[in-house]
Amino acid sequence: MSALPKHHWTEAEYLEFERTSESRHEYYRGEIFDMAGAKEAHIIIAANGVTSLNLQLRDHPCRVYQSDLRVQVSEIGFYSYPDIAVICGESQYADDKRDMIVNPILIVEVLSPSTENDDRGEKFRHYRNLESLQEYLLIAQNSHHIERYLRQETGDWLLTDRTGLDKTLDLPSIKCTLALAEVYRKVIFEDNLTK
Questions:
Q1: CA Rg value for the chain
Q2: Per-residue pLDDT for 36 more than 90?
Q3: Which residues make Cβ contacts (< 8 Å) with residue 173, sequence separation at least 6?
Q4: How do 135-139 and 106-110 pair as beta strands?
Q5: How far is CA 87 from the centre of its chain?
């Protein structure tokens, strides 16, 4: 993410700007960050994740959202577009525009070289302020690897990770399982393109 020219934006200014913008931007404490375009592997991985979760949740009261729906963490003034978000039960919106959710139970970010540090650090720290959030997934786009952070009753987060196309990862918060072979279906890593 790269910051737009320095100007301290209020949340109201950001929302007015964002709702008329042709591109997407994240916001944190007065700064707006342009969302760069994703590479093919990133897009396919996110689409495969959405497909897998949608199929598993089709008869459940949960909905899977892809990256066009904004998540608001109001306590800290953070607005983001996760690659995938899941809500179970009734969606709660930040306002009557119904374009910002505040109660995801699961958030998924597909890692890219330019966002990996932020997704692992600052962004995850912000997301943890969401009382509804039970699981946070990080999916690598350059290897067959998924990390799951699961909120414990104590409030601590437990890491479980899987590596390899023969592995699966349970998602207890939504009673689903992700098969890495499905998540990485048709994905060609950039390293393989240059060989």
A1: 17
A2: no
A3: 86, 88, 105, 106, 134, 135, 150
A4: parallel
A5: 12
Residue 21 resides in a domain: no
Q: Tens digit of pLDDT for each residue in 72-83? A: 998 788 999 999
**Rounded to an integer, what distance in angstroms lies between the CA atom of residue 13 and that of residue 18?**
8
| Domain of residue 84, residue span | 38-193
**Residue 90 falls within a domain, yes or no?**
yes
Rounded Cα–Cα distance for residues 69 and 81 (Å): 6
Is residue 119 in a domain?
Answer: yes
Q: What are phi and psi of 32, to 5 degrees?
A: -110, 135
- Asked if residue 87 lies in contact with residue 62, where contact means CB atoms within 8 angstroms, the answer is yes
The answer to whether residue 176 is domain-embedded is yes
pLDDT tens, position by position, 42-53: 999 999 999 999
CB proximity list for 16: less than 8 A, separation 6 or greater: none
**CATH number where 138 lies:** 3.90.1570.10
Q: Model confidence over 118-172: pLDDT tens digits?
A: 999 999 999 999 999 999 999 999 999 999 999 999 999 999 999 999 999 999 9
Which of residues 22 and 166 earns the better pLDDT score? 166
